[in-house]
Amino acid sequence: MSEALQYQKQKELFGHPVGLYILFFTEMWERFSYYGMRAILVLYLVAEATSGNPGLGWTNAEALSLYGTYTMLVYVASIPGGWIADKFLGQKQSVLVGGILLVLGHGILSVEEMWAFYTGLGLIVAGVGMLKPNISTMVGGLYKQGDIRRDKGFTIFYIGINIGAFLSSLIVGYVGEVYGWHYGFGLAAIGMALGLIQYLVGQKHLKYVGNNTNKSIDPEEKAAMKRPLSKIEKDRMVVLFISFILVIVFWGAFEQAGGLMNIYASEKTNRMLLGWEVPASWFQSLNAMFIIIFGTVVAAYWAKRKLKGKISTSLFKMCLGLIIMGMGFFFMTAAAAQFSSEGASAMYWLVLAYLFHTIGELCLSPVALSYITKLAPLKYASLMMGVYFAMTGFGNKVAGLLGESASDLGEYTVFTGIAVFCVVFGLLVLLIRKKLENLTHGAEDNERNIGGDNEGYEIADPNINKA
C-alpha cells in the first residue's frame, strides 16, 4: 500500500489518528505498573525487616546502588529490544511480548521470597526493554514526515504516561506503605494486565504501523532498509548521539526523584498536613500531576513561539529543559539548609523542586522522543529509540551513584552540585547549538500541519526529509 493511502486510511479523533490513543492507554498502564513499583521499591528496601510492614532492612547506600543499577538496566535493555524489533518481530509484536513479560514480572514480584524479588526485577527489565522503545517509535510512525502534529502527538502520548505515573504513585504507594509492599507490587501487575488487554483490543487501529519492515511490501521501505546510510543520514546520527549526552545529564539529575529525594522525603521532611502525615511515596506523584496540568500549556507555548518565528528547535528546547530542571535543585539546596538548622525541612521545597523538574522535563523528554523519529534512518528507527532509552538508563545509574555519594558529601553538597552542573552544561550546549542544527540538514525546517488545527503552516514536499 502506498504511503499516502496508508495515512488516508487512518481514522482520526480530535485531529490525531485513533491509534495514538490506543498507544496512549497502553503506555499509561505500563507506566502505572512501572512507576507504582518504583515509588515503593527503595522504601521497601530500606524498611526494617522487623517492622509492622517488613522490608529488607538494607542501608540507604545499598538501596540506592540497587535502584541505580536496576533502573539503568531497565532502559539499557531498550537496545536489544529495539534491535529485535528492527530485525525480527517489528515494533507491534515486540510491544506485545514486552507487555506479557511485564505482567509476569510484576506478578512474581508480589511473592514474598528473595528468588521472586530478583526474578521479578529481571522480567521487568526485559519487558520494558521490549515495550518502551517500540511503542514510542510506533507513535512517530502514525504521522508522515514533516507533519507538525507529530510533536503534539508525542505530548499527548506523554500525558498518558504521566496519568499512569500519577495514579500509581498515589494508589500503589498508599497500598504498599499501609497494607504491605507486596500488595503494592501485585497491584502494579493488575495495571499492566489491563494495558495489555487494551492493546490487543485496539489492534485494528494499528494496522499500518509497527510492522516488521523486513517483510514490508512497500518498495521504498525495502530499498531504505538495504542501502547504506547517506551523508545526510550520517550527519543526523552524529547530532542524535551528541543530543544523547544531554539526555544522560538530564536523567542523571532528574532521577534523584525515585532515589535520594524519595529517601529525603521519608527521613528529613516534615510531612504533617492538618494533623495527618503525608506518605513519602506520594511526592512521586507531583511530577506526573504537574505534567498533566502543564503538558498542553508548554506544547501550546512552543507552537505559538514557532509561529512568531522565534527559536523553537528541538535542541534549543532540550537545552532549556536541562537548565530549568537544574534550577529546581536549588530548592533542594534550601531544603537541606533548613534541615541543618531546624532538624526538618518543609514540604514546599519538594513541591517547588518537582515543579521545576517537570517544566524542564516537558521541554526535553517528549521533544527528544519526537526528535529521534525525525532524524533516525528507517532501518535503525527502533534501535535508535532503544539507544535513547539506554542513555536514559545510564542517567539513572549516574543518579544512583550521586545518591550514594550523599552519605559522604551530604545532601546540601550533592543538590547544589547537580544544580550548578546542569545549568552550566545546558548553557555550553546552547553556544554550539547552531552548528549542530546545521548537521540535521533541515529536518525540522519543513514541518507541516496536516489534519489538525490550521496554524498557517505551508504544505511542503512530503519526500523532503527522505534522505
Q: Would you write up a description of this structure?
A:
With 467 residues, the chain is mainly alpha-helical. The protein is 73% helix and 2% strand. The chain is built from 16 helices and four strands. Strands 1-2 form a two-stranded antiparallel ribbon. Strands 3-4 form a two-stranded antiparallel sheet. Helix 5 packs across helix 14 (381-409). The relative contact order is 0.16.
Question: Main sheet: which strands, in order across?
Answer: 1-2
Extended strand count: 4
Instruction: Give the end-to-end Cα distance, rounded to a whole number of Å.
Output: 21 Å
The number of helices is 16
Cα gyration radius (Å) = 22 Å
Largest sheet: 2 strands, antiparallel
Helix content: over 70%
**In terms of per-residue confidence, which ranges show pLDDT below 50 for 5 or more consecutive residues?**
1-5, 448-467
Which term fits the overall shape? globular
Hey, roughly how much beta strand do the residues contain? Answer: under 5%
Structural class: mainly alpha
Q: H/E order of the elements?
A: HEEHHHHHHHHHEEHHHHHH
Mean residue pLDDT: 82
Domain Major facilitator superfamily (MFS) profile: 19-437
Region (Disordered): 444-467
Family: Belongs to the major facilitator superfamily. Proton-dependent oligopeptide transporter (POT/PTR) (TC 2.A.17) family.
Transmembrane segments: 67-86, 93-109, 115-135, 156-175, 181-201, 237-254, 282-303, 315-340, 346-369, 381-400, 412-432
